[in-house]
Amino acid sequence: MWIYEKKLEFPAWVEGCDLKIAKLLFAQYGGPDSELSAGIRYLSQRYTMPIPEAKAVLTDIGTEEMAHWEIIGTLIYKIIDRATPEELEKAGLGPHYIQHGRDLYPHDAAGVPWTAAYIQAIEDPITNLHEDLAAEQKARTTYEHLINSTKDRGVIETLSFLREREVVHFQRFGETLRMVQEHMDHMKHKR
Amino acid sequence: MDISRDRLEMLKEIMAVDFSLVELNLYLDTHPMDQRALRLHNEYVIKHKMLKEKYEKDYAPLTHRFTSDCPWEWIEEPWPWEIDYEMGGK
Amino acid sequence: MTKSYTYDHEYKPEMLVAPHYKIPVMGPEFKLAEAYVPYQVLQKVYEPMKGLMTGTIFPELYRPYIKMKKDRED
């Protein structure tokens, strides 16, 4: 089960009020390669994993991704909280403000709502883990695009943290793949 | 929203130790026999418990599993997304 | 045991690929059509606050982002 710890994983901060990056940050809040996709993907795949190490990795990384989802939400909230409707409109957040006010909402940077079509879970653990490795690379790349798109020091520092997490997650999924490969090979020869 | 300097410092210290625990957790998931990592993890757990106990006693609960005064302290502000972590150094 | 793919020791993959790509030989225990990420082994760890600011406590996993020339605004 999940319980809530009343603190962020990272002290997320924003230097100013870069509304343009707030709009783009929705890519990682509700987009195809977002933290939300990652969390739901891994937490959905964990049930059929054949070895305990894999069940642990998918549960633990899935849980951490939800903490990252919270950080992205925090960055967006800190930026848009102080903005007027006119300022939001000018930055391209007009449609979001009309339909959601200043609430967070799981859509991508263009306003496209999140869908489970962004994720896959297909039982074969080798296949699932390759999906996960790809997901971590897509997230890393998206963070790099976002870092390129702002000069706000707080946003850059927070996104750099999140980007480095993707590198570490890739390594863990790679190690999990090695174990699952060995396991599947061993099972094949037991018969 | 702002919290006191001392409270913010301790919160950041907890964030740092807890992050080390997350990293070691993931590492141990794929290296369950690594005794060096297990030792480090166990050391950090002790540090975490000590810091958490002090923070919850002096400031505010981190999880709902704590003994509360009246009124129910869990609902108190600030919530994590409201805190100004002052990282830029004003 | 699965029949592993063994190399004729004079016929190395690096000879078949353009020389500017260094493709080291992976021994016969590695199988074709499978992907391998090297296993990390714990060395030293960063102090907690440095780890938090870096995004990892493992120096060997730190991959700082360096902007490509065309992505820089200067």
Q: What is the strand and helix layout of this fold?
A:
The complex is a heterotrimer of chains A (191), B (90) and C (74).
Chain A: H1 19-30, H2 35-45, H3 52-80, H4 85-90, H5 94-100, H6 125-148, H7 153-190
Helix pairs in contact in A: 1-3, 1-6, 2-3, 2-6, 3-7, 6-7
Chain B: H1 5-30, H2 35-58
Helix pairs in contact in B: 1-2
Chain C: H1 13-16, H2 48-54
Quick recap:
The complex is a heterotrimer of chains A (191), B (90) and C (74). Chain B has 90 residues and is mostly helical.
Beta-strand residue fraction of chain A: under 5%
Radius of gyration of chain B from CA coordinates: 16 Å
H and E order of chain B: HH
Shape of chain B: elongated
Mean pLDDT of chain A: 97
Helical content of chain A, roughly? 55-70%
Number of strands of chain B: 0
List key phrases describing it.
heterotrimer; B: 90 residues; mainly alpha; 0% strand; elongated; C: 74 residues; little secondary structure; 15% helix; flat
Description:
The complex is a heterotrimer of chains A (191), B (90) and C (74). Chain A is mostly helical and 191 residues long. Chain A has helices at 19-30, 35-45, 52-80, 85-90, 94-100, 125-148, 153-190. Chain A contains seven helices and no strands. In chain A, helix 6 packs antiparallel against helix 7. The mean pLDDT of chain A is 97. Chain B is mainly alpha-helical and 90 residues long. Chain B has two helices and no strands. Chain B has helices at 5-30, 35-58. In chain B, helix 1 runs antiparallel to helix 2 (35-58). The mean pLDDT of chain B is 95. Chain C is built from two helices and no strands. Chain C has helices at 13-16, 48-54. Chains in contact: A-B, A-C, B-C. Chain A binds chain B through residues 3-13, 15, 53, 56-57, 60-61, 64, 70, 73-74, 77-78, 153-154, 157, 168-169, 172, 175-176, 179, and chain B through 11-12, 14-15, 18-19, 22-23, 25-27, 29-32, 60-65, 74, 79-81, 84-88.
